[in-house]
Each structure stands twice: as C-alpha cells, then as structure tokens.
Write a structure and sequence with these properties.
Blueprint (H helix, E strand, L loop, with lengths): L1 H16 L9 H19 L4 H33 L1 H15 L2 H16 L3 H9 L11 H48 L11 H29 L3 H11 L9 H11 L3 E2 L2 E3 L2 E3 L3 E2 L9 H31 L4
Antiparallel strand pairs: 1-4, 2-3
Length: 325
C-alpha cells in the first residue's frame, strides 16, 4: 500500500509536469481498440433486438474491464517480483498516464492562444480536438464556452476520478475506471445505434463517477476560494444547477466553474448537424472572455493539488493506523 501511494504521488508529478508525450504509446488507445474489436464480436453473437443488444452491451463491459484490469495487474506482479524499484517506476508511469491534467491544459490553451492572436479558424480547429459538438460555425464566445466547459467537465472525469480510484486500489483500479469511462465515451450515446447496446456502459460510468463528481465540485469550490474566484457564487450555482445536464454527474464541476467565473455556460449546441436543446448552467453576470480559459485551468491545477493532498493524507493516516508506517 505504501508503494502504491508513492507511485500515485510520482505519477501525479509526472502528469503535472510532463503530461502524455505524443510519441509515447498510451494505454487508453489500447483500451479503445479493444472496445472496437469487442463491439464487433458482441454484435455478431447477439440478435439486434432490444434484449439482444442489452446483453451484448453487458458482455462488452465485462470483457473490456477484464482485460483492462488483468493486463496491468499481471505486468505489475511480474515486475514487482523481479525488482521493487522497477515495480514502483512502472506503477508511477501507469498512474501518470491515467491522469489528464497537463493534457487538458495544453489542449485548451491552444484555443486560448489562437483566439489571443485573432485566429478564429485556429480557435475552431483547436477546440474541435477537445469537444464533440460541431465547431465549424462557432463564434468567439461559443468557442470560449466550449473550451471552458470541456475543461470543467473533465476536471472530474480526467483528473480527480482516476486519482480517487488509484488512491483506493492503485493503477489496476484506475484502469478499471478508465476502461468504463472510455466505453461510455465510445458507446454511451442515446441514438439508434447505441441506445440499448451502450446502456450498461453508460450506467456503469454514472455509478463510478457519482462520488468523484461531487467530491470534485467541493474541492473546486475550495480552489475558487483560494483563487478568490467568487466561491459563494460557486456554492450557490452548484447547488442550483448541478443537475442541469442529461448525465447525473457532468454538470457538477461545470456548475462550480460557471459560478466561480460568474458566466453562463452550456445551453443549445449542434452535434453532427442536429441542434440539441440543453439547459444552461450559471448566470449571465458577465460575458465570457478569452482569459476564462486560463482561469478554468488554474482551477483545474489547484483542484488536482487539493485532491492529491486529500487522498494522500487519508491514505497515510490509514497506513499509520494499521501499522504500515
């Protein structure tokens, strides 16, 4: 357990400082490829009825989780038996790869930098890399909102939730979470193709994110207080608008961000040429500004640090109480 805490700490530092170099193969790509393979297999094995697709989707979740957990668990067991220091190094790298703090900042700041230069097309291209909505007709305000919303939502999904599960069960449990989260992003849609097939993946993701999303929101309010980004308004908007999203978890960190920055987020958006009507989050106290992308990244980094202190502190107390240290 102590090795796991050390690995989480160094993995956290690796992510905050280096992130995920594009030249280095990322395990989530492997998980994504495995999801595609298993989707094809499950769709061939089961009928295209509602019941058949639900069963196929259930087997997809089980098979993807099984492989995503078994591979890192086996690798760590082999390496730790060979050399403890090599095991801690490998575990640290795994932890770093499961957290996306630096990547979120880097990708969103590309939007910021393009807009600062007055490059609207560059801003649209940059934001298209991190959002699922149509971006080719977005104006400057819409580009900024898209970038801010994506960072805000992923503070939980891409940063705090993986850290939460790794603090409990190391990178093995972290990979379980990441497998489910990746499945949800690939098959968890409410359209004709995935409404039944992706339901189990989507519900499992909702379950795993329930606690991290709420914990992330409260840590963000603390971060807003430290940065003096209107924490009282963040608290108010959070408790008012935290369910203004189709997902039970996605609006929590967005609501805190909207309140802390005193801006209006979310609302209608186009996806694949179709307009989707969505509730807004926050109050239109002031228009969004390019600098809001920078501010949400400051909240991202500070929230991540607070989470590391919280998870690390709790784990140290547990280890001390049971005589490990």
């Amino acid at each position: 357990m102590l090795y796991s805490l050390i690995a989480l700490f160094f993995g956290f530092l690796l992510d905050m400082i280096i992130g995920d170099p594009h030249w280095l193969w990322h395990p989530v790509r492997g998980i994504g490829s495995w999801i595609k393979v298993m989707e094809k297999i499950q769709r061939k094995l089961f009928s295209k009825t509602k019941k058949g697709e639900l069963i196929a989707g259930s087997f997809l979740v089980v098979s993807v989780i099984a492989v995503s957990v078994a591979v890192p668990a086996t690798l760590l067991m082999i390496i730790f038996r060979w050399n403890v220091f090599a095991g801690v190094l490998l575990e640290s790298i795994m932890c770093g790869q499961l957290i996306a703090t630096k990547d979120l900042k880097v990708e969103s700041m590309r939007v910021h930098d393009a807009l600062r230069k007055g490059d609207m097309e560059g801003g649209r291209n940059a934001v298209s890399m991190i959002v699922g909505r149509d971006t080719n007709k977005l104006n400057q305000e819409e580009i900024i909102k898209a970038a801010v919303e994506t960072v805000a939502e992923n503070i939980s999904d891409g940063c705090i939730a993986p850290m939460f599960y790794m603090a409990i069960g190391g990178p093995v449990l972290g990979f379980l979470y990441k497998a489910v989260n990746t499945m949800d992003s690939m098959v968890g849609y409410k359209n004709d193709k995935y409404i039944y097939f992706g339901r189990v993946a989507a519900k499992t993701d909702d379950f795993l994110n329930y606690l991290p999303a709420r914990l992330s929101a409260y840590l963000m309010i603390m971060a807003a207080a430290i940065k003096r980004y209107h924490p009282c308004n963040a608290w108010r908007i959070y408790h008012r608008d935290r369910y203004n999203h189709a997902s039970p978890n996605s609006a929590h960190t967005e609501a805190v961000t909207a309140g802390a920055l005193e801006v209006l987020l979310a609302g209608d958006a186009y996806y694949f040429g179709i307009l989707y009507h969505k509730k807004t989050i926050g109050d239109d106290i002031r228009p969004v500004e390019i600098n809001d992308i920078k501010k949400v990244n400051e909240l991202l980094y500070l929230t991540a640090v607070l989470a590391m202190l919280l998870f690390g502190g709790i784990k140290l107390l547990i280890l001390y109480s049971i005589g490990y240290i």
